[in-house]
Amino acid sequence: MKARIAVLGGDGIGPEVTHEAVRVLRAVAARFGHEFEFTEALIGGAAIDASGSPLPPRTVDACRSSDAVLLGAVGGPKWSDPAARVRPEQGLLEIRRTLGLFANLRPVRTMQAMLDASPLKSEVVRGADIMVVRELTGGIYFGRKSRTAHEAEDVCSYTAGEIERVTRMAGRLAMARRRRIVSVDKANVLETSRLWRTVVERVLTAEFPQVEFEHMLVDAAAMHLIRRPTFFDVILTENMFGDILTDEASMIAGSLGMLPSASLGEGSVGLYEPIHGSAPDIAGRGIANPYGTILSGAMLLRHSLGLEREAAVVEAAVEAAVTAGVRTADVRAAGVEPVGSRAAGDAVIARLVG
């Protein structure tokens, strides 16, 4: 198979972790006889410094002409002035909009060898396997905004169409899993959540009758994620709630550095990135955890290129490396010396080609 992959390293540790993911994808191509072409482009703060724009036209062109996009992270203190007209995060939001990506998939799964890395009791998190489906183009992040010296406004808005399409995505995913969806909202307070609840119920009842579903208020969901994470299969929720809940859920897996994500639309082109930020405090030191980005590469293989076997092999290689004790500092085990980004990438590649 031939495929073109755009690589947007971004800021902070982004270029370091995407470098390791690209090395793994090259190893996959070599083992399975594929041909992957990688094109690097700028996004976020690095793009602002180079061109004045967080998403230059060359980057948009590279993404549009590719089969998938691998991204590191954007942002950092250098560009964090709240009054700034141009900010790194605008590049990420705009590329999602440009590519028509409306659903963010964030899997949260515990590894047996990583149970000690979670701050939660092992008996609570053991066996957790959750897919969070977060709506990506609506809600308070994209609503009308205004600000004066004494007042500010962020409008949360959703259309039925936006809710329908992300619900169908969640329904299809649930059919391939344990056929259970928990739809998270705040319908006791918010009109957008009342619309959300109505549309989700209508779509799932009519189109996915085999899927069991229930509604849950976001505050209750936040509690149950920690109290009984194994209860959840697919979580479907709106933009801001999904952003917050998945950061909370990272503690189930042990670290933000372990979690991948995929942003998908109606077509096969997707954007794949770890859920962590740019971590400027450790950038350039070669110690960042690349596993979340490598696992994002596995999602790229599965969802954009249709290479299920190759994706599963990468995921198994990551788990084997972690089980062998190859851990970065954020998930270090007692008595085990943490490794750097390169060594973690090497460990995965060794298990791919060995």
Explained architecture:
Helices cover about 40% and strands about 20% of the residues. The chain is of the alpha/beta class and about 350 residues long. The protein folds into two domains: about 1-100 and about 255-354, Isopropylmalate Dehydrogenase (3-Layer(aba) Sandwich), CATH 3.40.718; about 120-255, Isopropylmalate Dehydrogenase. The protein has a ten-stranded mixed β-sheet, with helices on both faces. Helix 1 (about 15-30) packs across helix 10 (about 290-305) and helix 11 packs across helix 12. It is globular, with a radius of gyration of 20 Å.
Looking at this protein, list some descriptive labels.
354 residues, alpha/beta, Isopropylmalate Dehydrogenase, 2 domains, ten-stranded mixed β-sheet, two-stranded antiparallel sheet, 12 helices, 42% helix, globular
Structural class: alpha/beta
- The low-confidence parts are none
Main pleated-sheet profile: 10 strands, mixed
Strand order of the largest sheet: 2-1-3-12-11-4-5-10-8-9
Q: Fill in the CATH topology of the largest domain.
A: Isopropylmalate Dehydrogenase
Total count of domains: 2
Helix content estimate: 40-55%
In the CATH hierarchy, the architecture of the largest domain is 3-Layer(aba) Sandwich
> What is the count of β-strands?
12
Question: Beta-strand level of the residues, as a percent range?
Answer: 15-25%
What count of helical segments does DSSP give?
Answer: 12
Order of helices and strands: EHEHHEHEHEEEHEHEHEHEEHHH
Topology:
Elements: E1 2-10, H1 14-32, E2 35-40, H2 45-51, H3 57-64, E3 68-73, H4 88-98, E4 103-109, H5 122-125, E5 129-135, E6 145-147, E7 152-154, H6 160-175, E8 180-185, H7 191-207, E9 212-217, H8 218-227, E10 234-237, H9 239-253, E11 260-264, E12 271-274, H10 291-303, H11 308-323, H12 341-353
Parallel strand pairs: 1-2, 1-3, 3-12, 5-10, 8-9, 8-10
Antiparallel strand pairs: 4-5, 4-11, 6-7, 11-12
